[in-house]
## 1
Amino acid sequence: MLHFRYSSLINAPVEDVWNFHERSDILQLLTPPWQPVEIIRREGGLDVGAITEFRLWLGPIPVQWLAVHTECDCAERSGGANRYRLFTDEQKQGPMESWVHRHQFSAEQGQTRLTDAISYSLPGGWLAENLLAWWVNSRLEDMFRYRHEVTKRECENK
C-alpha cells in the first residue's frame, strides 16, 4: 500500500471550505486543465453513497474511474467543534488496484487546514509500486497543488 498526503492552510472558516467542496461544479473547478479527464457524472454531493464517475485517457485508451463516498462526517451527523470534518471516497472501478481518498478539514487559528490523504495500490504489485510510485506521487503532487491553489483562491476571495 502506497500513501500520499497534501496539506495546506486556507485563510477561511472550515464551513466555507466545506461548502466550496459541495458546489455542483466542484469537479470542473478542481480538475487541472492539463489532465486528460472527462467528468461523466457526480451524484449525491458529499454524502455516503455519492458517486463520481470520470473517463481518464491513457493515451488513446479510455479508462473509467468510478468512486463512491464511503464516509462523511459533517454538520448533519455531528455537532460542536468537529462539524465539517471529513469525507472519504473509494475507487470501485478504475486504473488503481485500490484507492481510498480522505478529504480532511480542521480549524486552525481561525483558518482551515485542508488535507488530502490517499492510500493506494497499483496494479502489478510490488514491482509496479517500486518502479512507478515516485511517478504517481509526483503527478498527485501536481494535481493537489493545483486543487489547493484553486480552493485557496475561491475561499479566501469571498
## 2
Amino acid sequence: MNSIETQALSIGYGESLIIDDLNVTIPKGQISVFIGGNGCGKSTLLRSVARLLKPTSGTVIIEGKQITSIQTKELAKKMAVLPQSPIAPEGLTVYQLVKQGRYPHQSIFKQWSADDENKVNHALEATRLTEYKDKAVDQLSGGQRQRAWIAMTLAQDTDIILLDEPTTYLDMTHQIEILDLLFELNEKENRTIVMVLHDLNLACRYAHHIISIKNGKVFAEGKPEDVINAEMVRAVFNMECQVATDPLFGTPMCIPNGKGRCILKQNKYNNAVNA
C-alpha cells in the first residue's frame, strides 16, 4: 500500500499554475525525495500534500483516504510536517518545543500522560538532544536546532514525515548529520519520509525513491539509479554533467562539467599535446 498519492493534482497562486495535472506515488516505509530546478514546484507540491495549500483541482490520497475527508487533528496523527527554516519563539527550550509535538494527542478527556512524556524522551534520545533539553532553541547551533525541530515531529508519532529542504543553510557536516538521522528513523522505525532536496548526490545516497519535477510535471520517477542520468540532468537542470558511481555507496554521482578549472585543465592538456 502506498502512503501518499496525488491524482490529477493542479496547484496555482492566483492565475499562475505551478503544478499541472500531477500524478505522484509515495511508497510506504521508504524515503522519497523531490528534486528539480528552482521554481519547478517541489515545495509547492510538498505543501499541498501536507494540506497547507489547497489545490485548484485534483486530490491527495493519504493511506487510501482523500486528505480533505480527514479531520485536522486526525491528519496530525498521521503526518508531521517540517517547513523551511522554522522559527521558535525566543527563549523556548528544546523540551518545550518537542513537547508541542504531542498536542494533537491531547484533548479535554486526555491530558498529559506518562505515554506523552515517554514519546518526548524517545524523540530527544533519537535526535541525541537529551543533554540540551533545557537549553533555549535559539542558542543551539544550526544542526542542533534542526534536530530539535525533527524531534518535535518525532514526538508527534506519525508514520509519515514531510520535510521541506531540511538541510538548507547547514554546512556539510550538519547536512550529513541530519540526513543520517532521517535514514536511521526510516531504517529502525519504518517511517515514511518525504523530502525536498537540492543536492542530487545526497538525494541519491539517502533516497529509495526519487521524483524529478520539471515545470510542474513529473519528468522521471523511480529508484535513483533509474532516474539520475546525464539526460535527466540536462533536461531538468539545464546542465551538462557526467554521472559516475559513488565509490562509498554505489549510488549515482553527478559530476557537473562546469567551466573555469575544467577549461583551464583542457587548455593545459592541449598545450602539452601540441608542444
## 3
Amino acid sequence: MTEPFTDRLSINQITVKSWTFEETVRGCARHGIGHVGAWLDSVAEIGVDKAAGVLADHGVSVSSVCRAGFFTGNSPDRSWAGRADNERAIDMTARLGADVLYLVCGGVADDRDLPAARAAVRDGLAELVPYAAERGVRLAVEPLHPMMCAERSVIVTLDQAVELAEPFGPDEVGIAIDTYNVWWDPRLAEGIERAGDRIIGYQVCDWLVPQPHPVFGRGVPGEGVIDLRGITRAVDATGYDGPIEVEIFNEKVWSSPPDEVIRVIKERFAAGVLG
C-alpha cells in the first residue's frame, strides 16, 4: 500500500545501481513507490517494449529518463551523444510512456573555447526540439555543478539553463533541478522563481562533508549539508507538484542491499525533504 508521503517519491535507477530495470520497478512497487527515474542503457538491456510492459504490470510510471544531450561532443563515456543517439533517446522516452528527457549539455570541447561550447549547446538544442515536440517529449535542461564544466556540462547555473529554455515553449523545453548541482548558487532562490512553470524535473540528494569523490559524493537525504526542505519549498512554490527523484551516486550506497537503501530513503524522505 502506498504511504501518504510516497505519492511524490521516485527512485532513480542509479541509486539502486545493482538492480536491473525490471528489478528496480519490482522493488519500487514492493515498497509502495509509484515512480522510477529510468536510465536509457538499462532500458536498452531488456528492450524498451519489455520495459514498458514491466512498468504497466506493476503500476509504476517513469518520472524522467536520463539522458540525452552532449551537444559539444564531449562525453566522458562517449555514449548517448550525437544527433542519432539523441533522437533514439527521444523515441525510447516516448515508448516508455514518459515525457521528460534530461539533457546533459556537454563539456568544453578539445579547442577549450568555452563560449563556443555554450553556443554549440544552444544550436544543438534548437535542432532537437522539433523532433522531441512531435513525439510529445519535453526536454529538460539540467545545470550541473561547476566542477563538471570540463567533461559534462558547460551549463552550470539555473540562470544559464533558463536562458537556454526561454526561446521555446514550456511544453517543449523545461528545467531539471538537482539539489546536488545547484544548492551552492547564491542566486538559487531567484533562479528557481525565474524557472517557474518550466520546472519539469526535480532530483534530490545530499552533499557529503568531506566530499569522498567529485562525482560519487552524493548522500542519502539527511546525511549532508543541503537545505533540502528549503529548496523543496521553493520548487513547490512555483507550482511544481510532480515526482521528487532521489538520485545518488555513491559507492557505499551501491554496495548496500537495495531494499535497505530504499527503506532508509523512505524513512528520511517525509521529514528530510518534504519537511
